[in-house]
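Sequence in, structure out. Go.
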Amino acid sequence: MINQDTKIDVSKALLAYEKVVQYGYREGEEHRLDGIFVSSDFDGYTLFIHDDRVRLTVFFHNKFTVDYSSRRALMSFNEKLDSICRTRYS
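Output:
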Protein backbone atom coordinates (compact mmCIF):
# COMPACT_ATOMS: atom_id res chain seq x y z
CA MET A 1 0.00 0.00 0.00
CA ILE A 2 1.42 3.38 -0.96
CA ASN A 3 -0.17 6.25 0.84
CA GLN A 4 0.73 9.92 0.64
CA ASP A 5 -1.98 10.88 3.16
CA THR A 6 -0.45 8.89 6.01
CA LYS A 7 0.69 10.97 8.94
CA ILE A 8 4.47 10.87 9.17
CA ASP A 9 6.46 13.19 11.39
CA VAL A 10 9.08 14.16 8.81
CA SER A 11 11.22 16.07 11.31
CA LYS A 12 11.39 12.93 13.48
CA ALA A 13 12.26 10.85 10.43
CA LEU A 14 15.05 13.29 9.51
CA LEU A 15 16.47 13.20 13.04
CA ALA A 16 16.40 9.40 12.98
CA TYR A 17 18.11 9.46 9.55
CA GLU A 18 20.95 11.60 10.94
CA LYS A 19 21.39 9.36 13.98
CA VAL A 20 21.49 6.23 11.84
CA VAL A 21 24.17 7.79 9.63
CA GLN A 22 26.16 9.03 12.63
CA TYR A 23 25.91 5.99 14.91
CA GLY A 24 24.90 3.12 12.65
CA TYR A 25 26.87 0.59 10.67
CA ARG A 26 27.56 1.02 6.98
CA GLU A 27 26.37 -1.86 4.80
CA GLY A 28 27.08 -1.17 1.14
CA GLU A 29 25.28 2.03 0.19
CA GLU A 30 23.16 2.06 3.36
CA HIS A 31 23.62 2.72 7.06
CA ARG A 32 21.84 0.48 9.58
CA LEU A 33 20.86 1.02 13.22
CA ASP A 34 18.29 -0.77 15.39
CA GLY A 35 16.44 -2.29 12.44
CA ILE A 36 16.29 0.89 10.36
CA PHE A 37 18.21 1.33 7.11
CA VAL A 38 18.89 4.71 5.50
CA SER A 39 20.41 5.97 2.26
CA SER A 40 20.09 8.90 -0.12
CA ASP A 41 20.17 9.59 -3.82
CA PHE A 42 23.35 10.90 -5.44
CA ASP A 43 22.73 14.56 -4.59
CA GLY A 44 21.28 14.03 -1.10
CA TYR A 45 17.92 15.66 -1.86
CA THR A 46 15.96 12.41 -1.60
CA LEU A 47 16.28 10.25 1.50
CA PHE A 48 15.26 6.61 1.87
CA ILE A 49 14.40 5.23 5.30
CA HIS A 50 13.15 1.66 5.64
CA ASP A 51 12.87 -1.51 7.62
CA ASP A 52 11.73 -4.94 6.42
CA ARG A 53 8.09 -3.89 5.89
CA VAL A 54 7.99 -0.10 5.40
CA ARG A 55 9.76 2.22 2.98
CA LEU A 56 9.65 5.99 3.54
CA THR A 57 10.99 8.30 0.85
CA VAL A 58 11.50 11.94 1.85
CA PHE A 59 11.82 14.44 -0.99
CA PHE A 60 12.87 18.08 -1.12
CA HIS A 61 10.63 20.41 0.95
CA ASN A 62 9.65 17.50 3.24
CA LYS A 63 7.29 15.91 0.76
CA PHE A 64 7.17 12.15 1.22
CA THR A 65 5.72 8.84 0.17
CA VAL A 66 5.42 5.80 2.37
CA ASP A 67 4.97 2.23 1.19
CA TYR A 68 3.84 -0.27 3.83
CA SER A 69 2.25 -3.68 4.03
CA SER A 70 -0.13 -3.01 6.94
CA ARG A 71 -1.06 -0.44 9.57
CA ARG A 72 0.68 -2.62 12.15
CA ALA A 73 3.90 -2.51 10.11
CA LEU A 74 3.67 1.28 9.90
CA MET A 75 3.11 1.56 13.67
CA SER A 76 6.15 -0.64 14.32
CA PHE A 77 8.24 1.47 11.93
CA ASN A 78 7.21 4.68 13.71
CA GLU A 79 8.07 3.09 17.07
CA LYS A 80 11.56 2.27 15.75
CA LEU A 81 12.03 5.88 14.60
CA ASP A 82 10.84 7.12 18.02
CA SER A 83 13.27 4.82 19.79
CA ILE A 84 16.21 5.97 17.66
CA CYS A 85 15.31 9.61 18.28
CA ARG A 86 15.10 9.09 22.07
CA THR A 87 18.22 6.94 22.49
CA ARG A 88 21.51 8.56 23.42
CA TYR A 89 24.20 6.80 21.44
CA SER A 90 27.91 7.21 22.11
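Check: The CA atoms of residues 38 and 72 lie 21 Å apart. The chain has a mean pLDDT of 93.
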